[in-house]
């Protein structure tokens, strides 16, 4: 049974995308390039399984797919490319990224957001995707080695020549995003329209600055890891670490034990009470709404003002169908939104807490330079 989905404008552009975007990081596997341990995990999907998920996503109304050159060292883009040959290209909005090295032997010039590396990366991505343009091309991470003017002029040139339609950034902080917006204006270049950022009930720090810039500048937020690698579901128990072969949450928890940088609610050195309180609130609301915990967690993101589309990753058609049930036909009440926000409070270190204590009655929506759609 097809599920109707809702659509939003992609930031200040005139393009409309489904409010759930299919993230393709689970497509393909490899033991080469950056993060080989991650892309060789047993939950990665082969081409046939990936195509089944892509087919179902479009059947349910989705039209927005996000990938990157480093996802499975190019194999994710290849899988989408073979699938795309039997589809109407004009009906699909495809996003990819560049900036993180694919070849670990080329760490001088095969990395970053220089003109050389962006142009060098785009060609192979288009070849793997078997398309002659990208709807959205994103800088994967801030590059301290390249003048921002060089990066922005390169994106602008690629827009002007039709190789990409729009550009965005991912994994940047507030001052960096404001510099991106201001520099594009100063040079009279096409603007950045998206920020792809890790955002969930477990990861809210970008609300402090980066998302304030998004609201002021009309930049759409595309949350990645909205379920924190499976942590914001009802499958986990406080005293039981999940099997690393059966879930991403378990896999990442195991990697944490090996010294990898990933937060885990089973890390005994941290206070994780808020996490388990959040799960309890999610379960209560899910029961009241007759929805899954994952759907409620996704819906909390969908209803955030700055969000255009939430990037969901799936390892099965069943998981995709459940996640897509967050898109349309129901809402969380203001009270329920507050309950969830209060259960997973935003930390406000100095000076953020100091500023907000004086600014609580000084919020003027008309003072923003751009009003988002």
From TrEMBL:
InterPro entries: AKR_Detox_Biosynth, NAD(P)_OxRdtase_dom_sf, NADP_OxRdtase_dom. GO terms for molecular function: oxidoreductase activity. It comes from the Eukaryota. One of its GO terms (cellular component) is cytosol. Keywords: Oxidoreductase. Pfam families: Aldo_ket_red. Residues 20-342 form the NADP-dependent oxidoreductase domain. Belongs to the aldo/keto reductase family. Aldo/keto reductase 2 subfamily. This is NADP-dependent oxidoreductase domain-containing protein.
């Amino acid at each position: 049974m097809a599920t109707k989905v809702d659509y939003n404008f992609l930031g200040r552009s005139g393009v409309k995308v489904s409010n759930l975007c299919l993230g393709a990081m689970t497509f393909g596997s490899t033991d080469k390039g950056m993060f080989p341990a991650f892309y060789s995990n047993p939950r990665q999907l082969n081409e046939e399984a990936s195509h089944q998920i892509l087919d179902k996503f479009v059947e349910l109304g989705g039209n927005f797919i996000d990938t990157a050159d480093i996802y499975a060292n190019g194999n994710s883009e290849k899988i989408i490319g073979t699938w795309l040959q039997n589809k109407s290209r004009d009906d699909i909005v495809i996003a990819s990224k560049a900036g993180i090295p694919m070849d670990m032997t080329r760490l001088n010039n095969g990395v970053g957001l220089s003109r050389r590396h962006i142009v060098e990366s785009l060609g192979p991505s288009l070849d793997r995707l078997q398309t002659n343009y990208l709807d959205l091309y994103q800088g994967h991470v801030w590059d301290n080695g390249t003048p921002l003017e060089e990066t922005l002029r390169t994106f602008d040139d690629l827009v002007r020549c039709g190789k990409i339609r729009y550009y965005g950034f991912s994994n940047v902080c507030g001052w960096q995003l404001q510099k991106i917006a201001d520099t594009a204006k100063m040079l009279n270049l096409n603007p950045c329209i998206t920020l792809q950022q890790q955002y969930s009930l477990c990861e809210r720090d970008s609300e402090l600055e980066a998302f304030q810039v998004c609201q002021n500048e009309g930049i759409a937020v595309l949350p990645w890891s909205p379920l924190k690698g499976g942590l914001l579901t009802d499958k986990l128990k406080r005293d039981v670490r999940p099997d690393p072969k059966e879930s991403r949450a378990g896999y990442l928890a195991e990697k944490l034990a090996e010294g990898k940088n990933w937060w885990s609610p089973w890390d005994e050195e941290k206070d994780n009470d808020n996490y388990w309180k959040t799960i309890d609130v999610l379960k209560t609301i899910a029961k009241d709404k007759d929805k899954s915990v994952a759907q409620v967690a996704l819906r909390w993101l969908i209803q955030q003002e700055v969000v255009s589309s939430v990037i969901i990753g799936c390892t099965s058609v069943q998981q995709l169908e459940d996640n897509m049930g967050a898109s349309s036909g129901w809402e969380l009440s203001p009270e329920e939104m507050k309950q969830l926000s209060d259960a997973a409070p935003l930390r406000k270190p100095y000076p953020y807490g100091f500023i907000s204590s004086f600014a609580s009655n000084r919020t003027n929506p008309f003072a923003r330079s751009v009003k988002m759609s």
